[in-house]
Amino acid sequence: MKKFGIILIGIFLIVIIIYISTKKTMLAYIPNADEGTISVIDTEKDQVINTIKVDSQLSDGIEASRDGKQIYVGNYSKGELFVIDADSGKTLDKIKTGKNLHGIDMTPDGKYLYLASGDFKEGDQYNYISIVDTKKQKIIKEIRTNSKSPSHIDFSKDGSLAYVANILSNEISLLDTNKMEIIATIPVGTVPNEVEPSKDDKYLYVANVTDGTVSVVDILKQKEIKTINVGKGTHGLALSPDGKFLYASNRGSNDLIKMDLETYDVAQKVTTGKTANHVSYVPDTKKLYVTNKDSNDLTVIDDDSFKVIKKVKLGKTPHEISFAKANI
How far apart, in whole angstroms, are the C-alpha atoms of residue 138 and residue 287? Predict the structure, then answer.
């Protein structure tokens, strides 16, 4: 009997060891644009666990592969897309786009990256969307848009539509991802930067930087149906997991707002850091992350209390946030 008990304890310990060794932690990856590094954040502890040096400068966008094995970042004016091994931080490949590289966004199935070439400059070279096959690690399509300076892109839940914000022509584009071509262009506010689809994909929310507003676009009708004032310099957007609330980060007023999407009322507001830049809802938590462009830090906000629970120091000029699970 004693021997049997020892065997059970041994089996229990083995199970614990296997669980610990296979347990994955959600990591956040943030590009520090003006120093060319990526901050890697343990989202359970809300702390930087690694800083990856990539180049002298990075683009605003970033994406982690769905399996968490690779990170995609760009180097902006050089127009190069880096494929980085998430474990070692080493560059595995470099894809030359021949264009400016601003936004980097991945389709829901992880098969393609959409690269936006926009900048606050006039010129044909800033009006492109390049599509990268993540398996082949090569550009398979270039789309010359009639709009000016596409910046950030998001997708419908089924991945059939891409939503493109065009910062210099004050409109968003709808792109058929199967045909890989633009099918509609919809006027919105001034300098639309980020887009966020509703949970049912009926509406698209657009952050208009100059206006300090959020545009509500009816996707089926293909037109703006409402504009809501939310702050100064509205730049980043995120949706709550249940789809009931929209969060907007405001660069000019240095804050984050929480909007009730049933009434379009701003329910709560919290001061973040200097020049609140991008916002993301941390998966499987009740926390929000906000990068602050000019105070070079990350604000962690509890969604229930809507209060700041932590500040995390980052590198110079942090921008977008991407998440993936990994063993650490």
Answer: 35
User: What domains does the chain contain, in order, with CATH numbers?
Assistant: 27-326 (2.130.10.10)
The whole-angstrom separation of Cα 311 and Cα 319 is 15
pTM score over 0.70: yes
Query: Is residue 218 within 8 Å of residue 225, measured between CB atoms?
Result: yes
Give the model confidence (pLDDT) of 37-58 as tens digits: 999 999 999 999 999 999 999 9
